[in-house]
Specification:
This protein is an alpha+beta fold. It is 22% helix and 50% strand. Strands 1, 2, 3, 4, 5, 6, 7, 8, 9 and 10 form a ten-stranded antiparallel beta sheet that branches. The protein is globular, with a radius of gyration of 17 Å. The termini are far apart.
Length: 194
């Protein structure tokens, strides 16, 4: 397992051009082609993952199944994002369509949260960039819908995530990106739209 620093920035959609100019000045380069991402998030009946995320408690998790429609990657990925005192990391496992259908029907048993059922779809477009030792993901057109099918609408913001080694000096990262940081979770934002 490899821990990393993750910092999030929430930027108003109308400031996208300004932010992209900022990235050009930092000589950020595209490292992968942009793509659409769809994630199905799971939680227990008491929404404890949502509540723990809001409170910033550790350890906490988010469990999701992610795929990349509109790309040649047709895999389904079962992912668990874990936030602990030591840092953040993610586990990822490819599952087949049969397993996906089973998990949607029967849920996922988790040692911390118990039975977790499918709750929320989050779909968005992501661009991937890098400058020096910082990877940057830029998420736009973030749309939320319930697992039951009801669309909850699009987010008014775009989200930037900075990822770097756990060994990077956090003050240095902040000086490189002197923008307002935020605690932001697409899953939590979507739940709040209910």
């Amino acid at each position: 397992m490899s821990f990393r620093i993750e910092e999030k920035l929430k930027i108003d959609k109308n400031r996208l051009v300004d932010f992209k100019s900022f990235l050009i000045n930092k000589t950020a380069k595209q490292i992968y082609k942009p793509r659409k991402i769809q994630s199905l998030y799971f939680d227990n009946n008491n929404y404890e993952m949502y509540k723990d995320s809001l409170e910033g408690l550790t350890p906490r998790k988010k469990i999701r199944i992610r795929n990349y429609p509109d790309t040649s990657d047709k895999n389904l990925y079962l992912e668990t994002k874990i936030s602990s005192v030591e840092g953040r990391f993610k586990t990822r496992k490819i599952i087949d369509k049969k397993k996906f259908i089973d998990l949607k029907k029967n849920g996922i048993m988790d040692s911390q949260y118990g039975l977790c059922i499918p709750v929320l779809y989050v779909e968005y477009s992501r661009e991937y960039l890098k400058t020096k030792d910082v990877r940057i993901s830029l998420d736009t057109k973030i749309n939320y819908s319930l697992f039951s099918g009801r669309n909850l609408g699009e987010d008014e913001n775009l989200i930037v995530e900075l990822k770097t080694s756990i060994n990077k000096d956090i003050d240095e990262l902040i000086s490189e990106f002197p923008l307002q940081r935020t605690r932001f979770s697409k899953y939590c934002n979507g739940i709040e739209k209910i």
